[in-house]
Amino acid sequence: MNKSREYLMFVGRAVQNPSKVGAVLPTSEHVARAVADVVPSNGPSTVLELGPGTGALSGPIQQRIAPGSRHLAVEIDPELVRYLNRTKPWLEVIEGDASDLRKLLADAGVDRVDAVISSIPWTLLPGDKQRELLHEAASVMTPGGVFTTVTYLTTLWRAQTKEFIGALDDTFDEVFPRSAVWLNVPPARVYACRRPKG
Hints:
alpha/beta, globular, single chain, S-adenosyl-L-methionine, methyltransferase, 7 strands
C-alpha cells in the first residue's frame, strides 16, 4: 500500500473532522503489531474493527487471522469507507455508527465476534457515550472474546481518559494494560480486556 497516500488521507480527514479523529498521525506499525498480537490465530474467527480510519491496524490483523475468518470494520466517515473499500478489498467495511453495532452486525449476518479492536478516539467522547459504545462492543463478544483498544500516554492525566479507564473496569472483568509503545506519535498504550460483565 502507498503509505504516503494513507498519510495524506488521514491528515485530510483529521483536519476536516477534528472532533472525530483522535490522533495527529496514523497509528504506527509498532502499535498495529501490538494490537494484532491479541487477535485469535488458532482457527477461524470473526474479528471486528471499530473506527478503522485509513486501516493502519487492518493489515497486521488480516495477516494474523486464520483462513476462513471474517474481518469486518465499522466506520462512520463515508470518505474513509470509500477509501477502505478501494485500498483493502478483503476487509468487510460497514458504514455506520458503533452505537448501532448489534443491528449493523445482524444486517451483515454476524451474531458474535471473537475480537473487537477499537480505534475510536475515546478521549474526545463524553463519559456516557464512552459507556454506551463499550456496552455495544461487549454485547457482541463471545464469552472468550477479547476487546482491544489504544489510548495515548499524553492523555493519561485528562479527566476523559480516567473516565474511560473506569468505564473499561466497569465493563470487563479483566482489563490488562500492555506495555507502552514508545515508537508511536504520540506514545500509545494498548489495553486487552476480557470477560464482559453482565
